[in-house]
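Researcher: Go.
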Amino acid sequence: MAKEEAKSRNPKTERPQTHSTAAAKHRPPLPSLLDFSFSIASLVTLLAGVVTVVLSLLHGVSVVVAAIRGCVAVFCLGAVLWLLNYFLANQVIQTAVADLKAAQADLDKGESTREFQA
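Model: Structure:
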């Protein structure tokens, strides 16, 4: 029976799950501005699609046409909001890089042990 258990536990087929969960735990969270922006963009896009479908159905168009209108609205608004979020994320990254370079320059400059009197 021990041989059967050993055969069922093939090390090649089993992968340890610690790497993926450990990597997920060490990922830093998004800055709150980006998180808020992504969330608002997703909600606005979803709401626009639903409102488009509901208004189309209320005005008497077929379900297929209402669904197509909703998909087009979601795609168009989603593309615009994605582009705005891309620009925002790019600026946040560039600002963080500039801050890190400034901090590194301060560390590289070093401190003098000599005191100056004014």
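Model: Residues 22 and 28 are 12 Å apart (CA to CA).
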